[in-house]
Design brief:
Length: 189
């Protein structure tokens, strides 16, 4: 009876196994980022853009010049790789027309602490307060924290740019964006 034996010398076999292992590991290491990139490319959720958008929110005439903030929903068309959806809710804003003026202040209605929607209570404080129902942050009508020392929110409400040219034409357009929560004001992109 005969036994088949591997004719390769031991050093050659070791070298072959080392190279094979290197190719397999190298292929796997390269595959992980490739797969992640492919998933990002193919998944429309990842490709959805949250960048800032210029949006008409209201007409100037519809805002009483009394310094009281009014809340408006913000809707926009959303497009991803496969779908286009019209008038999707993307947030909310408060618009405040300063007394006897055409100046408009705009704030994102999300609390910078953890993102809950703030309410404006006209009878709270001296001239009304934005109040967050989640952890009791209070903000003055101009968006500043009532007491920064004790306020759970690490920053004031997030102001949004108002288009001055459109305002002259009687329309309130804002550059809408959502922000990350936390101490720093960073737009979500
Ligand atoms: S989310 Fe507003 S105080 Fe916490």
């Amino acid at each position: 009876m005969t036994h088949e034996t591997d004719p390769s010398p031991p050093d050659e076999r070791r070298s072959f196994l080392t190279k094979a292992a290197a190719i397999i590991i190298g292929g796997f290491v390269g595959f992980v980022p490739f797969a992640a990139g492919l998933a990002t490319f193919l998944d429309p959720v990842f490709r959805k853009s949250n960048a800032s958008k210029a949006l008409k929110i209201a007409s100037l005439d519809s805002l009483p010049a009394d310094g009281v903030p009014r809340q408006f929903p913000v809707v926009s068309d959303q497009t991803d790789a496969w779908n286009q959806n019209s008038n999707q809710p993307i947030g909310a804003v408060y618009l405040r027309r300063l007394p006897d003026s055409e100046m408009i202040e705009a704030f994102n209605a999300a609390c910078p602490h953890a993102g809950c929607a703030v309410d404006f209570k006209p009878n709270a404080g001296e001239a009304g307060l934005f109040q967050c129902p989640c952890h009791k942050s209070d903000f003055k009508p101009d968006g500043a924290r009532l007491d920064p020392e004790t306020c759970p929110s690490p920053r004031d409400l997030d102001p949004l740019p108002v288009d001055a040219e459109k305002l002259k034409q009687g329309e309130v357009w804002i550059e809408f964006m959502n922000f990350q929560t936390g101490p720093e004001r960073k737009p979500i992109t």
